[in-house]
Amino acid sequence: MPELPEVETVRKGLISLVKGKTIAKVDVYWPRIIEFPEIEIFQQQLIGETIETVDRRGKYLIFHFTHYEMVSHLRMEGKYEYFDQPRPLDKHSHVRFIFTDGTELIYHDVRKFGRMALLKKGMAKEYKGLLQLGPEPIDEDFDLLNFKQQLKKSSTMIKPLLLNQKIVAGLGNIYVDEVLWLAKIHPEQPADTLSAQTVRRLRVAIIEVIAKAKEAGGTTIRTYLNALGEAGHFQQELHVYGQTGIPCSRCGTPIIKIKVAQRGTHLCPHCQKLKKV
DNA sequence: AATACTACCTGCGTGC
DNA sequence: TGCACGCAGGTAGTAT
């Protein structure tokens, strides 16, 4: 499900529901979800561990336990669900954390793309996926000069470049489309052809869209009872994503959908013109 | 080194 | 109804 705002909403849900709980047992039903260590070690090491807090970096969740840290990525459809008492598992429940008080946290993932990795305390920051992440899309971390330089170095289309997490962390298919609409940039515009002024506008758009979506609790596309982070309402503020055929809120031209780097891409053909350089 | 394509999975809607 | 196909909020591995 998640891009940065949704993962942040899940993080808050986890803090409010499972912070301070101690693990009694871990069940794993789809082994590939656990990247490392081996399943038995993963299960063994977590027994008796207490959840001290849950952090986020980009789209990754970082669970801080007493002696370990767990990096968790939800990829396309991963969800955490919390239950007060044991209940029958459905076919898409792949990992179950049972706490000493009888409550449980279930990792649910229809497409099984999500991953978890357990590392020793203090070692999560060495996890490969976290090492290659760009800055958080907030004013304090996201440096304009550096952003400009990175874009100048690449002739790749701006959309796939923003999706790769290395220049800035946390954007996915929904928010990239929204950001490019707000900044009036065509998704296929080569990064190194953006003017200094456009890059400045793009940076502000990224910060603004992510901040607003975080405030709204993310975008909810499918509703799932009990799933943490499914209460968002940013879908009411989308201008292009999923709005094919609907008039652009700025100019009235119908929003179109095209394919860019194999991803469905929404844009206003009037506001977002490809600029020849 | 940077870039593009594919694999990883399941379910749903569409068109024949 | 059945079936093939394309599509879905993402990333890692592989080939060029």
Q: Helix and strand layout, with pairings?
A:
Elements: H1 4-18, E1 23-28, E2 34-36, H2 39-46, E3 51-57, E4 60-65, E5 68-73, E6 79-83, E7 93-99, E8 104-108, E9 115-120, H3 128-131, H4 144-152, H5 158-163, H6 173-182, H7 196-215, E10 256-260, E11 263-267
Parallel strand pairs: 2-9
Antiparallel strand pairs: 1-7, 3-4, 4-5, 5-9, 6-8, 7-8, 10-11
The structure holds a DNA duplex (16 and 16 nucleotides).
Main pleated sheet: 5 strands, mixed
CATH class of the largest domain: Alpha Beta
Mean pLDDT: 96
Question: What sequence of helices (H) and strands (E) makes up the elements?
Answer: HEEHEEEEEEEHHHHHEE
Instruction: Categorize the overall geometry.
Output: elongated
Query: What is the architecture of the largest domain at the second tier of CATH?
Result: Alpha-Beta Barrel
Count structural domains.
2
Helix/strand/pairing category: alpha+beta
Keywords: DNA damage, DNA repair, DNA-binding, Glycosidase, Hydrolase, Lyase, Metal-binding, Multifunctional enzyme, Zinc, Zinc-finger
InterPro entries: DNA_glyclase_Znf_dom_DNA_BS, FPG_cat, FPG_Glyclase, FPG_N, H2TH_FPG, Ribosomal_uS13-like_H2TH, Znf_DNA_glyclase/AP_lyase, Znf_FPG/IleRS
Cofactor: Zn(2+)
GO molecular function: oxidized purine nucleobase lesion DNA N-glycosylase activity
